[in-house]
């Protein structure tokens, strides 16, 4: 049993606080911060808003669409392709930048430490080398953690859960900002160079998404630049499609796997899909891989030889040497089971760790201290393992970048050092390709054990870092160990080549942690450049997913749930047919009349207790005999633009001919509409009337109140709605269904459970 104090000693993780406004308020009001934040995973946070995937088809929109002729639509289509090409090129360049900088900085660090170790091995006093290594690591990680914790907390972690939420339709503050991209890229470089157990692959997906969101909007609020060219795309529908292309381009730059990128976007990300989108996304991924490939080839000095398709290159697996036979299939399936169990263990440990971090390590300064602690511990563990290892291998014929001799004979190097004294990507490739007999089983066993806990402790620190490479590394280590022990058992039989088992172990471990199936199979096939292994990899990943899901959910889904994000899965919970829209909807609904007093509108928008974002518009007849039926729906953002431009009925009747609002005025305010507090309405203007008929969406989606929850869910999820109005049989508004009302119901251990909503 672990007591809380021993848990404290193990050390634990910080969750990304996605709300900066709260922090700004806290700095203004000097109050005592609590030592413990009570956090319950059975909550849904109300601070996340939904994205509007559904266009508001008001009169302005319809007029503009009718004005556009066929040629103009073709121009828009061409612009889409141009944007996709630019996304690919820029994502590829960012990946190149990360790769080159990491290679040079890490190389410098390892050379310095290696010279130091060689010097002190001769004359004693190796503790200085340890001190140097740990200090270098901790100081680099400190910088990387400082920028994340204090400048942009969203950039922490791999960014895949955040992008997954964004593509699901949840608006996470600052997730696709330029500032986030800069912090992300610098943070990744620093955390990989700082020797943490992290990879630079996951953050590429986030970086690609930010690039996509930025380019498609044709402007940057951070840089105060504004290009008129891509104005048509300034709405959630278009932006979200481009973000899924960016995520795919990120995957394909990271692994050199364009098809895997498209499938990743389909499996993990996009909630909405059509064929044109698939083809454009594939185009973006291909361009991204090609850009990375050509730039890195030029950098490595062989300009015409396109040999480095991704940030990680698993190297070629030859089919002749490394085929597999039918009797190995059960062995692979068994490895899948092991991967699933280990993955579930990893996720469970990380879950407790993250809960601890949310509760206790929520101040930025504590988060930085924890990151430095992890960096120093990682270096120390590595050093102690290398120091204690007596596993010596001859240098002849081996391709070790930084061979450490330590206490080995001349002409030999320490093989534990190839695993620890290297960037994780290189270690993975070594485990895949080193000839049989390069590693002692003892070395591999100890390495797996240590690295498992280090990687688990590292994921969720306040540094930007991915979990892909560490899980591949853990898997490759125990897979190779498995292969070695098989050839012991079969007395050195030819088919037990450890490299092949390292590959299967890596797939099993990664599948057990993140639970991706389709895209991961294709990514592994593309990264190894070998189709023969498609079937065993698929079997391994399926087994790992089934076994892992039996215990605990995938790492990304777990972090989404821990952040209390209202995430909608593909289907409604299985047992929810008994619920109807009447029980799910929020009531009472704040309705506006079609011609409304400005004062009323301002008061409704300023009311902080309700803070609604969509208002049904009803008929404004004064006599009570007629039914106040539903006429349309208007959004908060539209109302704010109307108030800002002072579109009041009285003004229109005066001789001053006022310019009519165009859609452009709404687009220019997107995506950051000013808060209602910043709009000044005088006392006289409060008495004016405002006519909503040409701005409201006259045909909002509605459901009758008897509709069952799965039916409501399907409509909401498939169309990407933000508001769904519930009406009775006389077309009167009785309620409103939003994302939170649907995300509240979740299948728990005992059956259907309802989460409570919280303001945090």
Automatic annotation (TrEMBL):
The keyword Cell inner membrane does not apply. It is found in: Membrane. The keyword Membrane applies. This is Chloride channel protein. One of its GO terms (molecular function) is chloride channel activity. Gene3D superfamilies: CBS-domain, Clc chloride channel. Keywords: CBS domain, Chloride, Ion transport, Membrane, Repeat, Transmembrane, Transmembrane helix, Transport. Residues 696-754 form the CBS domain. It holds the Pfam family Voltage_CLC. GO terms for cellular component: lysosomal membrane. Belongs to the chloride channel (TC 2.A.49) family. InterPro entries: CBS_dom, CBS_dom_sf, CIC-7, Cl-channel/antiporter, Cl-channel_core, ClC. The chain crosses the membrane at residues 81-102, 130-151, 181-198, 242-264, 276-299, 329-349, 369-388, 442-461, 467-489, 501-525, 531-552. It is a multi-pass membrane protein.
């Amino acid at each position: 049993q672990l007591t809380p104090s021993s848990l404290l000693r193990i050390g634990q993780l910080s969750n990304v606080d996605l709300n900066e406004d709260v922090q700004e308020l806290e700095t203004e009001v000097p109050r005592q911060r609590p030592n413990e934040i009570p956090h319950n995973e059975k909550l849904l946070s109300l601070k996340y808003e939904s994205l509007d995937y559904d266009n508001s088809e008001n009169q302005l929109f319809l007029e503009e669409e009718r004005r556009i002729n066929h040629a103009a639509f073709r121009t828009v289509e061409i612009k889409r392709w141009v944007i996709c090409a630019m996304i690919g090129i820029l994502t590829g360049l960012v990946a190149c930048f990360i790769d080159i900088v990491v290679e040079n900085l890490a190389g410098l660090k390892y050379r310095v430490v290696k010279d130091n170790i060689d010097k002190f091995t001769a004359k004693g006093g190796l503790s200085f080398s340890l001190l140097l290594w740990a200090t270098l690591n901790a100081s680099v990680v400190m910088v990387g953690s400082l920028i994340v914790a204090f400048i942009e907390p969203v950039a922490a972690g791999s960014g895949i859960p955040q992008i997954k939420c964004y593509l699901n339709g949840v608006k996470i503050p600052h997730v696709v900002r330029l500032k986030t991209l800069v912090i992300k890229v610098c943070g990744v470089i620093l955390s990989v160079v700082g020797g943490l157990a992290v990879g630079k692959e996951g953050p590429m997906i986030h970086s690609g998404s930010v690039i996509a969101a930025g380019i498609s909007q044709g402007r940057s609020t951070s840089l105060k630049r504004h290009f008129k060219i891509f104005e048509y795309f300034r709405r959630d529908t278009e932006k979200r499609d481009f973000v899924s292309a960016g995520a795919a381009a990120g995957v394909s730059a990271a692994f050199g796997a364009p098809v895997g990128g498209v499938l990743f976007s389909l499996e993990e990300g996009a909630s909405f899909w059509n064929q044109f989108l698939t083809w454009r996304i594939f185009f973006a991924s291909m361009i991204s891989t090609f850009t990375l490939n050509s730039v890195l080839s030029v950098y490595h000095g062989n300009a015409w030889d396109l040999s480095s398709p991704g940030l990680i290159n698993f190297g070629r697996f030859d089919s002749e040497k490394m085929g597999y036979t039918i009797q190995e299939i059960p062995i692979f399936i068994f490895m899948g089971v092991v991967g699933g169990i280990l993955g579930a263990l990893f996720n469970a440990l990380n879950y407790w760790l993250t809960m601890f971090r949310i509760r206790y390590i929520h101040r930025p300064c504590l988060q930085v201290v924890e990151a430095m602690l992890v960096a120093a511990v990682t270096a120390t563990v590595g050093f102690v393992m290398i120091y204690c290892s007596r596993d010596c291998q001859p240098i002849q014929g081996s391709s070790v970048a930084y061979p450490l001799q330590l206490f080995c004979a001349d002409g030999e190097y320490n093989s534990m050092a190839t695993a620890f004294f290297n960037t994780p990507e290189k270690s993975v490739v070594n485990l895949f390709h080193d000839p049989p007999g390069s590693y002692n089983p003892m070395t591999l066993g100890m390495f797996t054990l240590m690295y498992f806990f280090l990687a688990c402790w590292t994921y969720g620190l306040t540094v930007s870092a991915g979990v892909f490479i560490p899980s591949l590394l853990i898997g490759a280590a125990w897979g190779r160990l498995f292969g070695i022990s098989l050839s012991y058992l079969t007395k050195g039989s030819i088919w037990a080549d450890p490299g092949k088992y390292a590959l299967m172990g890596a797939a099993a471990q990664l599948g057990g942690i993140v639970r991706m199936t389709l895209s991961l199979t294709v990514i592994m096939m593309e990264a190894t450049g070998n189709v023969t292994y498609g079937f065993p990899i698929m079997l391994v990943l399926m087994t790992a997913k089934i076994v892992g899901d039996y215990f605990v959910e995938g790492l990304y889904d777990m972090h989404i749930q821990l952040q209390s994000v209202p995430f909608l899965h593909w289907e409604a919970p299985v047992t929810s047919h008994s619920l109807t829209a009447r029980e799910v909807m929020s009531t009472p609904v704040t309705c506006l009349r079609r011609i409304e007093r400005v004062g009323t509108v301002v008061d409704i928008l300023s009311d902080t207790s309700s803070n609604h974002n969509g208002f049904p518009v009803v008929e404004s007849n004064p006599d009570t005999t007629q039914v106040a039926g539903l006429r349309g729906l208007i959004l908060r953002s539209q109302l704010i633009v109307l108030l800002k431009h002072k579109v009041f009925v009285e003004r229109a009747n005066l001789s001053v001919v006022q310019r009519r609002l165009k859609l452009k005025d709404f687009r220019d305010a997107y995506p950051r509409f000013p808060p209602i507090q910043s709009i000044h309405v005088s006392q006289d203007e409060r008495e004016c009337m405002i006519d909503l008929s040409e701005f409201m969406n006259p045909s909002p989606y509605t459901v009758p109140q008897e509709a069952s929850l799965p039916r409501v869910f399907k409509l909401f999820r498939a169309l990407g709605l933000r508001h769904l109005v519930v009406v009775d049989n006389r077309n009167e508004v009785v309620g409103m269904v939003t994302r939170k009302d649907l995300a509240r119901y979740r299948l728990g251990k005992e059956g259907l459970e309802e989460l409570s909503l919280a303001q945090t």
